[in-house]
Write a structure and sequence with these properties.
Elements lengths: L11 E4 L15 H4 L27 E4 L5 E8 L3 H6 L2 H8 L3 E5 L10 H6 L2 E5 L9 E5 L5 E3 L12 E5 L4 E6 L10 H21 L2 E6 L16 E3 H5 L15 H4 L6 E6 L6 E6 L12 E6 L3
Parallel strand pairs: 3-4, 9-10
Antiparallel strand pairs: 1-2, 3-14, 4-6, 5-6, 7-8, 8-9, 10-12, 11-12, 13-14
């Protein structure tokens, strides 16, 4: 069984003076944007209606408070193409967060990446890769070794690149990049097929052990109050932040970030029996620019 607490060597994680080379002109940092961390406070004229920052590149200094002893930090991030994200500062967030488990979605990788630094941080890596080149893709990188890993969604004809399930002694962790309904709902039938199989799957798992489900769920809840909770599972971020209208995704188009027009697509959904063990669930809303999504983290008692 994994240890009840994971060692933490510092009170904060901090990264400074990064290399800003990139081949994407839109994401090229400027000194005026990167001299300090974007502030979450300001006048109504300087921030969108919901108060989230509007920076377009990663801040120069990234630092987070460490989790409490005896807790596990899980992070999820839709990187919108791992190769592109790495050119725009991916590693600086990963180093600063130092999550115990990192769930990546929309990796778009064709092969398992060979990154020694990532491998040394996360010795247990699992990559679900789509048959279609540079498409979809889900990964779970972990400091804790699972008992079993499953790449399938029972009953679904081809879930490759969209789901991973790690079984631990006391819980399941599911990472997903859920099918998008597409423009004009052209792939809605595929999404409905996914939902039918996935709902049956997660409920069956929950009968055996409690479930942590995370990733890009590709569904946008209402801004302030989500649909009524289903009996077995809880949207943890919404439960802890019932009045906030915060997002995890902003389109690069139409000045969506500046205007505060986003969607909360990335979530942690937990079995009800785990909810009281959650210590924190936060959107890393300043970590924008390496992807059009920002990470979401959850600190929970180490129940694995």
């Amino acid at each position: 069984m994994p240890p009840k607490s994971l060692s933490r060597s510092a009170t904060k994680r901090k990264v400074e003076d990064r290399d800003t080379d990139t081949d994407d002109a839109e994401s090229q940092p400027t000194s005026s944007k990167l001299t300090k961390k974007p502030k979450k406070t300001g006048t109504l004229d300087s921030l969108p209606h919901n108060g989230q920052p509007t920076n377009k590149t990663l801040p120069v200094n990234i630092e987070f408070e460490k989790p409490d002893e005896g807790t596990l930090r899980i992070a999820t991030w839709n990187v919108c193409g791992l190769a592109a994200s790495m050119r725009k500062g991916f590693k600086y967030y990963v180093e600063a967060e130092d999550a115990d488990i990192l769930v990546l979605t929309e990796t778009k990788v064709n092969d398992i990446p060979a990154d020694p630094a990532l491998k040394s941080r996360y010795p247990h890596q699992y990559w679900s890769i789509s048959d279609k080149k540079t498409y979809a893709g889900t990964a779970i990188l972990s400091k804790v070794k699972p008992l079993h890993v499953d790449y399938k969604l029972p009953g679904h004809p081809n879930p490759k690149g969209r789901i991973l399930t790690l079984e631990f002694e006391n819980a399941y962790l599911i990472g997903t990049y859920v099918v998008n309904a597409g423009q004009e709902l052209k792939t809605m039938d595929a999404k409905k097929e996914w939902q039918t199989h996935f709902e049956a799957y997660i409920r069956e798992l929950d009968k055996k052990k409690p479930v942590i489900w995370t990733g890009d769920l590709n569904v946008a809840p209402t801004e302030k109050e989500d649909d009524p909770e289903r009996p077995q599972f809880v949207d943890v971020w919404r439960k802890l932040h019932p009045d906030l209208q915060h997002y995890t995704y902003w389109s690069y188009r139409f000045q969506s970030r500046e205007k505060g027009n986003g969607w909360r697509l990335d979530m942690f959904v937990l079995s009800t029996k785990l909810v009281d063990r959650v210590k924190k669930c936060e959107i890393r809303d300043e970590i924008y620019g390496a992807s059009d999504h920002v990470p979401l983290i959850m600190d929970i008692e180490n129940i694995l």
